[in-house]
Design brief:
Elements (H helix, E strand, L loop, with lengths): L4 H42 L6 E5 L2 E6 L4 E7 L4 E7 L3 E15 L2 E15 L7 E7 L9 H15 L1
Antiparallel strand pairs: 1-2, 2-3, 3-4, 5-6, 6-7
Keywords: Membrane, Transmembrane, Transmembrane helix
Protein name: Conserved hypothetical membrane protein
Length: about 160
C-alpha cells in the first residue's frame, strides 16, 4: 500500500486540527488551577498555615491545613473574589446544603438547584455559621461536580470534628 505525500499531509493536518483545541483547553485549565492554588496558598500563609490537601473545581478552590485543621476557600467570580477560612476547632458540624425550587411540569415533580453551599455550624451557638457558596445558578449555568465536592468535604470535616 503506497500513500502519497499529499494524503499523509492532509491526514497529519487533520489530526493536529482535532488535537490542538484539547491541548490548549487542558493547558488553560491547569494554568488557572495553579493560579488559584497560589492565591489560596497565599491566603493560608497570611494565617500561618499551609495547604496540604485541596480540590479545584472551575471557579473555586477549597483546601485544608491538615496539621492546624483550618479549611480555606477561594472563589473567583466575574468582578470579585471571595476568600474565607474556618478553624475546625470552632466547628460543631458541617453539611452540604442544596437550595432550590420544586415545581410541577406536565404532572411530574421537578427540582431545580439554585445554590450549593458547604455550611459550617460553629460553637458557641451564638456565633454565625460560616458558608462556602460552591454553586449559584445566577453565575453558573449548570452543575459541574459541586454537589459531590460539597458532600466530600462535609464528610472530611465531620470526620475531623
Amino acid at each position: 500500500m503506497n500513500l502519497d505525500l499529499g494524503t499523509s499531509l492532509v491526514g497529519a493536518i487533520s489530526v493536529l486540527v482535532c488535537v490542538i483545541p484539547f491541548v490548549l483547553v487542558t493547558r488553560s485549565v491547569k494554568k488557572k488551577e495553579k493560579a488559584m492554588l497560589r492565591s489560596l496558598s497565599d491566603f493560608a500563609e497570611q494565617e500561618n498555615c499551609k495547604i496540604h490537601e485541596h480540590e479545584y473545581l472551575g471557579d473555586f478552590i477549597i483546601g485544608m491545613d491538615t496539621n492546624k485543621k483550618v479549611v480555606f476557600f477561594y472563589k473567583e467570580e466575574r468582578d470579585a473574589s471571595e476568600k474565607l477560612s474556618v478553624d475546625l476547632k470552632d466547628v460543631k458540624s458541617c453539611k452540604a446544603s442544596r437550595i432550590g425550587k420544586t415545581f410541577r411540569n406536565k404532572g411530574k415533580v421537578e427540582q431545580v438547584i439554585e445554590r450549593i453551599e458547604l455550611v459550617f455550624t460553629t460553637r458557641p451557638a451564638d456565633r454565625r455559621n460560616v458558608v462556602f457558596e460552591l454553586f449559584n445558578s445566577h453565575n453558573n449555568l449548570q452543575l459541574n461536580g459541586e454537589l459531590q465536592t460539597a458532600e466530600k468535604w462535609a464528610k472530611i470535616v465531620n470526620d475531623l470534628v
